[in-house]
Amino acid sequence: MNKMNCTLDRLFEQRVLPALYIFVFVVGLVLNVWGMISLLHNWNKRRSINIFVLNLGLADMLYLLTHPFLIIYYLNETKWTFGEGFCLVTRFCFNLNLYGSIGFLTCICVYRYLAVVHPMKVMGKLTTTHSVVISILVWILVSVESSPDMLFPKHSGNKTERCFDTTSSKNVTAYLNYSLSWTFFGFCIPFAIIVGCYRHVTVVVCRSDTIKNVTKQHIFKLMVFLILLFSLCYAPYHVFKNLNLYSRVLKNLSKCAAWDSGVYVARQASRGVVSLNSALNPLVYLHVDEDMGVQFRLLLQGCRQIFSRSFKLKSSFVSVPQTEQDVERAL
After folding, report:
1. Which of 74, 195, 228, 235 is 20 to 30 A away from residue 273, measured at CA?
2. What is the pLDDT along the chain (331 residues), one digit of tens a residue?
3. Nearest to 222 by CA among 97, 105, 104
4. What architecture (CATH level 2) is domain 12-305?
C-alpha cells in the first residue's frame, strides 16, 4: 500500500466494452426472440420446465433493451445524457437480468435433479402451476434484493456526468457491504446448489442402465454449460467487482493498492464477459428441448447453404479473362 494517486486505464471501458455490448445486443436479441417465439409457437407440447426457460428469456430481453443506451454512454466517453432516473432503471435491469438468470438457471437445474434422481416421487407433481408460482417468487425475490441498489447514488453532477454501475466514492464502503451480502445470497448459494445437484445427477446417470444415451448426453451438456457459465461469466464478475470496491475504499483512506490498476482492468473485462450471459442463455433452449435443437441445427444448415451459394455465385463473377490473349479468345 502507498499514498500515491492511482492511475486507471480506461481504454477497455471506452473502446472494447461498447463493441462487446453491440455484439451481445445483436446476437442476444436474435437468439432470444427466436427461442421465445419457438416456445410460444409450440406451447401445448412443452413441459413445465419451459416456464423457467421462458422467464430466463424475459430476463435477458429486459436487459438487452438497455444496451443501446449503454453503447452510446461508453462511446460518448462515459457521459450519461439520459437522466438520473433512467440511469437507475438501466442498472436495476442489469441486476434483474443477472440474478434473475442465476435464479431461473438454478430452478432448471433443480428440476432436472428431481426428474433424474427422484422420478417416482415427483411424477405428476411438477405441474405448470408450480413452475409459474416458483417463477413469480424468483422475480419477487430478485426485485426485493436488487431494490437497495437503487438507493445508492449512481449519477454525478459535474461536467462529465457519469452513470455508475456501483455508486459514488462517498458511499462505496456501505455499497461494498451490500455487494458482499448480495454475492453470497445471489451467487454463492445458487452455485453451490447447482454443483451439489449435478454431482448427484452425475452419479445416478453414470450408474443407470435405463436412461438412454441421448438423454444422458443432453443432461451432461446442460450440466457442463451451466457450470462453465457460472465459472467463467458469473464468478469473475463478483470477484473483481468486490476487489475493485475494496480498492476504492482504500482510496478514500488515501491509500493505493499495488494491484489497483490490474483489478480495475479485470473488473471492466468481467463486466463485458458477464454481459455475454444474455447471448449465451438461449443455448439453454437447445439443451432442454430436443425439437428446438433440431430446428436450430436446420437453421444453421440453411444459413450455411445460402452462404455457400452466394460465395459460389460471387466466385463465378470474379473468374474473368486476365490476359489480352484470353480477351481475344473470349471475343
Report:
1. 195
2. 555 556 666 677 777 888 999 999 999 998 888 888 877 776 666 567 888 988 999 999 999 999 999 999 988 888 888 888 899 999 999 999 999 999 999 999 998 888 888 888 877 777 888 899 999 999 999 999 899 999 998 876 554 578 888 998 889 999 999 999 999 999 999 999 999 999 999 998 888 888 888 778 878 888 888 888 999 899 999 999 999 999 989 988 888 878 888 888 889 889 989 999 998 888 887 776 655 556 656 655 665 666 566 656 555 554 444 444 443 343 3
3. 105
4. Up-down Bundle (1.20)
| Dihedral in degrees, nearest 10, Cα atoms 324, 325, 327, 329 | 170
pTM metric for this prediction: 0.84
Distance CA 46, CA 128 (A): 10
Under DSSP, the state recorded for 2 is B
The Cα–Cα gap between 84 and 271 comes to: 21
How far apart are the two ends of the chain, measured CA to CA in Å? 81
Q: Which of 104, 99, 89 is CA-nearest to residue 51? A: 104
Burial 102-133 (b: 16+ CB within 10 A, else e): bbbbbbbbbbbbbbbeeeeeeeeebeeeebee
- Cα 181 from Cα 175, distance rounded (Å): 10
